[in-house]
């Protein structure tokens, strides 16, 4: 497993509103992926007013599990200027500066959100500077391309990495071996990470991120083939450093 290689780096600046591919990322100890889910769109039924003080559960926000068409959003974000571009097959291109153009971004999302659900209300960010990931811990999602391929083969179709909203994708590792790393540490580039726990998947992964249409029951396939709904693991950054595409994984004893 020490021969595994970093194949993809991905972030999602606005929760459930687009993925962005990167060539490198600077990871900080005790922090998640930089600019990953820094913002989220709260719905009218959110259990907080204004900006959240800390982590809040995903049901407070616009999310792919509730509207699979959101899976087809792509993002380009510049952290120097906070300018974001969002695209979707059914929408005109959105360009704005965050958080100033948050209201315009919410307006752009509304046609993609089911009318029967509480409406998108406002763009929010945590007052404590944290992120809007699905778990309260400041973790990254680390996934294995071989596991994704095994799942796709069981379904008879190719599966995009973007169904699963990972941050770091590893290649040249046997399928499902990432689960054996829980509790262990590894180095990528100059950063050191510790694998914390498995990631249990939701219905958002059943949607094609190219079209936003339901296309393949990934959850049923995981249960039928492996007896669980897990794909990927969460990891914490235990030593700051930079990761770059092509970095080799060094597994520690």
- Overall pLDDT level: 96
Extended strand count? 15
Strand order of the largest sheet: 2-1-10-9-13-12-11-15
N- to C-terminal distance: 12 Å
Measured by DSSP, the beta-strand proportion falls in 25-35%
Helical content, roughly?
10-25%
Write the SSE topology.
Layout: E1 5-11, E2 20-22, E3 24-27, E4 39-43, E5 74-78, E6 83-88, E7 91-97, H1 102-109, E8 120-125, E9 140-144, H2 145-155, E10 168-171, E11 185-188, E12 191-200, H3 218-226, E13 230-239, E14 241-244, E15 250-251
Parallel strand pairs: 9-10
Antiparallel strand pairs: 1-2, 1-10, 3-14, 4-8, 5-6, 6-7, 9-13, 11-12, 11-15, 12-13
Helix pairs in contact: 2-3
Attribute tags:
253 residues
Question: Would you give an account of this structure?
Answer:
The chain has 253 residues and is mainly beta. The chain has helices at 102-109, 145-155, 218-226; strands at residues 5-11, 20-22, 24-27, 39-43, 74-78, 83-88, 91-97, 120-125, 140-144, 168-171, 185-188, 191-200, 230-239, 241-244, 250-251. The strands form four sheets. Strands 2-1-10-9-13-12-11-15 form an eight-stranded mixed beta sheet. Strands 5-6-7 form a three-stranded antiparallel beta sheet, covered by helices on one side. The mean pLDDT is 96.
């Amino acid at each position: 497993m020490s021969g595994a290689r970093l194949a993809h780096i991905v972030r999602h600046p606005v929760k459930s509103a687009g993925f962005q591919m990167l060539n490198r990322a600077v990871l900080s100890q005790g922090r998640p992926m930089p600019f990953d889910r820094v913002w989220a769109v709260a719905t009218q039924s959110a259990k907080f007013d204004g900006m959240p003080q800390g982590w809040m559960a995903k049901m407070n926000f616009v999310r792919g599990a509730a509207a699979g068409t959101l899976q087809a959003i792509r993002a380009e974000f510049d952290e120097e200027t906070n300018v974001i571009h969002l695209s979707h097959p059914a929408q005109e291109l959105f360009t704005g500066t965050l958080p100033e153009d948050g209201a315009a971004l919410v307006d752009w999302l509304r046609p993609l959100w089911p009318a029967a659900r509480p409406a998108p209300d406002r763009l929010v960010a945590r007052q404590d500077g944290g992120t809007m990931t699905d778990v309260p811990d400041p973790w990254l999602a680390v996934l294995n391309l071989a596991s994704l391929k095994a799942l796709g083969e069981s379904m008879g179709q190719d599966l995009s990495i973007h169904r699963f909203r990972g941050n770091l994708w590893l290649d040249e590792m046997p399928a499902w071996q990432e689960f054996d790393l829980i509790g262990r540490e590894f180095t990528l580039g100059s950063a050191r990470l510790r694998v914390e726990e498995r990631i249990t998947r939701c219905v958002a992964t059943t949607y094609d991120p190219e079209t936003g249409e339901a296309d393949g029951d990934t959850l049923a396939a995981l249960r039928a083939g492996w007896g669980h709904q897990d794909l990927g693991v969460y990891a914490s950054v235990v030593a700051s450093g930079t990761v770059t595409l092509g970095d080799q994984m060094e597994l520690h004893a």
